[in-house]
Specification:
five-stranded parallel sheet; globular
Length: 186
């Protein structure tokens, strides 16, 4: 866990706080690299090299990330092995996104770890919670995963689902909000 992530986890981060300023400074360090990621065609090896630089972590050669790929921060993403991410996927990763081995993510999906505060007088403030996608989980096309969610091992999230709570292992969820529709026999 990065030092910044340890400081912001579980906190209300208000716009006039030192934490908010620290987030903006850290975000600015990666902003140009994140924008340039999609300006030119990149081979899989080039994408992994760029993501290694962005995340500060080595990306396994078995990982495939299709272009375009979007992130607002980049430093708080952890990739396992044999991961496939389709095109137009967005990671809002300030709160931390962990992808275990063999995860597949369909096109136009969004993993969002940041939320604004509900109180009207604090609305511009932030809170963050991590997202964890466990081994062999599959997110279909146009899936949205909200802060604090764990997608269980072997789970499938159907296309267009909005996941607001944890998904049990070996289940299929669908809908908005996503709910269990089937158990997978292993």
């Amino acid at each position: 866990m990065s030092t910044l992530l340890a400081k912001i986890s579980g906190q209300e981060i208000l716009p006039d706080s030192p934490l908010f300023e620290a987030i903006q400074l850290a975000k600015n360090q990666n902003e140009q690299r994140l924008v340039e990621l999609n300006l030119h065609y990149r081979t899989n090896a080039d994408m992994r090299a760029e993501l290694t630089a962005i995340t500060g972590r080595k990306i396994d050669p078995s990982v495939v990330v299709s272009q375009p790929f979007y992130s607002d921060f980049g430093k708080h993403i952890q990739f396992g092995k044999q991961i496939f991410i389709n095109q137009n996927v967005t990671f809002v990763d300030l709160g931390g996104i962990t992808l275990a081995d063999q995860v597949m993510i369909g096109p136009n999906s969004r993993l969002i770890t940041v939320n604004h505060l509900a109180s009207p007088d604090k609305r511009r403030g932030l809170s963050v919670q991590p997202i964890k996608i466990q081994k062999n989980a599959w997110l279909g096309a146009n899936v949205t995963v909200l802060p604090g969610v764990v997608i269980g091992e072997n789970a499938i999230v159907a296309a267009d689902a909005t996941v607001t709570k944890d998904v049990p292992v070996n289940t299929i969820v669908a809908g908005n909000p996503a709910r269990v529709i089937k158990t997978i026999n292993t």
